[in-house]
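User: My instructor asked us to take a sequence, write out its structure as tokens, and then describe one feature of it. I'm not sure where to start. Here is the sequence I was given:
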Amino acid sequence: MTASFTTSRRSSRRGGWTAWAFIAPVVIYLLVFYAYPLGRNIELSLRDYTVRSFIDGTAPFVGLENYIKVFASATFAPALLNTALFVGVSILFQFSIGLALAVFFIKNFPLGSTLRALFLVPWLLPLLVSGSVWSWMLNSDSGVVNSFLEAVGIGQINWLTSPHWALVAVLIANIWIGIPFNLVILYSGLQGIPSEVHEAASIDGANGWQTFWRVTFPLLRPVSAITILLGLVYTLKVFDIIWIMTKGGPADSSTTFAIWSYRLGFGSLLPDFSPAAAVGNLLILVALVFGLIYIRTQRRLDVN
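Assistant: Let's start with the prediction itself. The structure tokens for your sequence are:
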């Protein structure tokens, strides 16, 4: 009896070490690439770091002073508004157009797979290329968009140099880039819905719109939620497109938190590393809040 118990304990202990061996790479990855950078960024925002401080390690602790400085800055209000508009409008159009295309492509037709693959091109291109292409297309003097507008009698629009149009310009580019991602995820979700459900709705007399709104869309809700959440997190940290096209200008008209954080940390000869870290932490906090909302919503759906 004692020998059997000892053997069982050894086997259990060995199984525990085996489990930890499989988990260890993930834990190490999270600690090195997530926990440490996040902790370092928080510590950076609570001290007064300068270029000299990074060399001699003498950055005084200032507490929440950097956050107060950020909130009191004249850039905070426009950056907050631009970030909210940029994220909200981008997700609205990316999801809506992506869903419409997914519903369109779920029906088999000749060359459907080829056309669907072509829609993935904006997603596969490097952001540097996409931003440069849209900068050229929206150029006030030689862009093809203004050439078309002039041809139809609308006239030129200063897309990249007007405070009224700069945010619209980067929104158009970002929406174009994000549609394929939504298309792929939502198309996969539609494929997972049994065809028998739609057949039953058709037998009950539901038309196409009623079937989509009362059957397809509710069944697609879990996939839609994760698509919107991932789109939110991605859009919050968009930097490349805005920087390439407008650099946040003119007059902060297209400055988001991501652009503002970069400009504070690297955009001048006298960088403000600590306020830049504070702005970055605000972005992380927003993403965390929405992530927690998503988890809470999914738990409620699972319970129901």
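For the description part of your assignment, you could build on this observation: The mean pLDDT is 86. Try explaining in your own words what that tells you about the chain.
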